[in-house]
Amino acid sequence: MKPSLLFGLLTFLVLSPVTARAEEAKPVDRIALAQSIKGLIGQRDKMRGITWYKHAAVPKYDNTNTFYLYFGITDDQILTPLRLKITYSSDSWLFVQSVWGKSDGKKIDLPQVSGTIMGWERDNSGGKIWEWSDAPVDTDTEIAAVRQISISKETIVRFEGRQYYGDRTLTAAQLLALRETIAAYQLILAKTWQ
Fold it and tell me: C-alpha distances in angstroms, 37 versus 44, 79, 93, 160?
């Protein structure tokens, strides 16, 4: 498929409602479909029996500022909910407690880790720190928030720490990766992600 045709299809799928219902769709080999979608790379977890798919533009390691969606398909071809991974990286700790954003000027609450003792996870090495949240995007509010971000012209994410905060503006490449991951997920679902 030509890149311009693929981009057109992905844009249509993200921005347009798809009327096909899952029960009307023919059975699909989800793993083969995910592998055939350009721009996605899979990472197999043999022990858990799942392959995780993320956009090729996502950094290999999570010790950088990241904001991306990913999903998994089990060996039994069960599709996981989309997940949102957000990473704050710097040379100074924020001890992130929450994150929110402004998408084209509109305040958006973002899905994030909750219910754990420490909340966000943290690591460091070589004078660099990174703090991250990895959460499913499965409520109507969370899905609407991520969709809004994916089609925005500008989204700024605020990482609220114990005493300080840090802002990061999502890049055009990050926004495109969100749109393309949503489109791929919808192809596998055979319906609109909602």
Answer: 16, 15, 38, 36
Q: Which residues contact 74 (CB under 8 A, 6 or more apart)?
A: 49, 50, 80
CB 179 within 8 A of CB 186: no
The whole-angstrom separation of Cα 119 and Cα 132 is: 9
Listed in order, strand segments (DSSP E) in 34-126 are: 40-45, 50-55, 66-74, 83-90, 98-103, 106-109, 121-125
Instruction: Supply the pTM of this predicted model.
Output: 0.81
Secondary structure of residue 163 in the 3-state scheme: coil
CA distance 20 to 22: 7
Least reliable range by pLDDT among 30-34, 116-120, 165-169: 116-120
Structure tokens at 82: 């989309």
